[in-house]
Each structure stands twice: as structure tokens, then as C-alpha cells.
Write a structure and sequence with these properties.
Blueprint lengths: L1 H29 L12 E3 L1 H7 L9 E4 L3 H6 L5 E3 L20 E4 L4 H11 L6 E4 L13 E3 L1 H8 L5 E5 L3 H7 L1 E2 L3 E2 L17 E5 L4 H12 L5 E4 L10 E2 L1
Parallel strand pairs: 1-5, 2-3, 2-4, 4-5, 6-11, 7-9, 7-10, 10-11
Antiparallel strand pairs: 8-12
Length: 245
């Protein structure tokens, strides 16, 4: 009888150990696998550095975003900068889908809102983000016309009859390569001689090869009193515009 009791106790101990091991294994399997989250370092940039980066030779390597309100942007912004208000940025990230690995430079008045914007970008998979010195901290040369990406420029001109679409590339290049449908050709060095084709009560939408010459024309028109000028920062060499002869 004593032997049977010992065997029974031994069996209970074995079953208890087995149950404990089973529970432990189940708990281990239930634990989610540990993942490593890569933290993107947000860089800082002075106004002098941004001005150098925004030169004709280097501007196409980055995307500059003014994260202030549309009213502040329209009152004066850094050339080649598009406008995306920080309060709307998270809801508009899909518009920046093609720029995940492009160096993005954000700026505002003081660096506070652009810092918030930089964090939003870094937390959403953008790999190269910089917060630049604000327009109230550095004396940038500001412009008042609108700068937009190639895709936003295309959306603007599609079916819009209240726009004068202008290709400012040389006439010879336009003849060889064609223009965006509906555009007129006014070469960048002939603008003042053809102002009669550019009514001030219309929106003037400008493009070229890379956004450089069209920006020059935008500044020229701004100095002549034009209020509604839009420049494509990505020209026909950078964005997939359809050209027709």
C-alpha cells in the first residue's frame, strides 16, 4: 500500500512539472517577437547653409517645405519651397510618397513648427530630415509667387481654363521636344517683349527643364506686379509631364 502511495505522489509531481513547463512554453510563444525600430536623426541647418543648398546647382537634390500657414507662405517664402502647413502634414504625407529617401528640409518662423514637422516625417519613414533656421532668425531673400511640385502643378493645370500655361524653355528645344498640351512658349529671355500674352487677371503657370529658368521668370513677373504666379519646381527633365508637338 505504501509503495502505491509513493508512486501516486510521484505521478502527481510529474504531472505538475509537465503542466508548469507547458504553461511556460505557451507564455513564451505568446510573447511578440522583439523588433528593432530605427531612429532617424533629425539634422539642423543654419540659414547660410540652406541658402547655399538652395543654389541653382544644388536645389534639385532636396525638397524644401515651408510648414507655416498658407497666409504666411504667400506673404514671403524661400524660393523653391513648397507649402505644407504643419497642422495638415500628417494627413498629406501621401503627397510626399515619392520623397521618402529625398533629403527634406523643413522651416518655419523660429524652428519650433518645423521641428514638429521634422519629427512627423522622421516617425513616418522619411529617412533624411533636416530642421532649418527660420525666416525670423535669418535674412533669407523671400518671394511671393507659389512653388509647387510637378504632380501638384499637373493637378493645377488639368482642365483649368483660368490659367495661362507657359513653357519658358528656348523655342528650338520646344520645337524638338514639344510642350505640355495647352501651353504657350515664351522663352525666358523674351518675357518682357510678350507681356501682352500674360494678363494680370489670370494665374500664370510656369515651367521649364528643372524649375530654374521658370523661377527666374516668376521673380521677374512678381517685380512687374503680377500677383498670381505659380512655378513648377520640377520641370520636364524631372517630372513625367506629357509633351505634345
Amino acid at each position: 500500500m505504501k509503495n502505491k502511495r509513493i508512486k501516486f505522489i510521484s505521478l502527481l509531481a510529474t504531472l505538475s512539472l509537465s503542466t508548469m513547463l507547458s504553461v511556460a512554453c505557451s507564455q513564451d510563444e505568446a510573447k511578440p517577437a522583439e523588433t528593432t525600430v530605427e531612429t532617424v536623426e533629425i539634422k539642423a541647418m543654419t540659414g547660410k547653409e540652406l541658402t547655399a543648398q538652395n543654389s541653382d546647382k544644388k536645389k534639385d537634390d532636396v525638397l524644401i517645405i515651408d510648414v507655416r500657414s498658407p497666409e504666411e507662405y504667400k506673404a514671403g517664402h524661400i524660393p523653391n519651397a513648397i507649402n505644407m502647413n504643419v497642422d495638415e502634414l500628417e494627413g498629406r504625407l501621401d503627397e510626399l510618397g515619392n520623397y521618402k529617401d529625398t533629403p527634406i528640409i523643413a522651416y518655419c518662423n523660429s524652428g519650433k513648427k518645423s521641428g514638429d514637422a521634422a519629427e512627423i516625417l522622421a516617425n513616418n519613414g522619411f529617412t533624411n530630415v533636416t530642421n532649418a533656421q527660420g525666416v525670423k532668425e535669418f535674412k533669407y531673400d523671400l518671394v511671393k509667387y507659389d512653388d509647387v511640385t510637378g504632380s501638384d502643378f499637373q493637378a493645377l493645370i488639368d482642365g483649368n481654363s483660368d490659367i495661362v500655361l507657359v513653357d519658358v524653355r528656348p523655342a528650338k528645344q520646344v520645337k524638338e521636344e514639344g510642350m505640355i498640351e495647352g501651353a504657350i512658349n515664351i522663352p525666358f529671355d523674351e518675357v518682357e517683349n510678350q507681356l501682352d500674352q500674360l494678363p494680370k487677371d489670370k494665374t500664370i503657370a510656369l515651367y521649364c527643364n528643372t524649375g530654374t529658368k521658370s523661377a527666374d521668370v516668376a521673380k521677374q513677373l512678381e517685380s512687374l506686379g503680377y500677383k498670381n504666379v505659380v512655378n513648377a519646381i520640377e520641370g520636364v527633365k524631372e517630372h513625367s509631364f506629357t509633351l505634345v508637338n
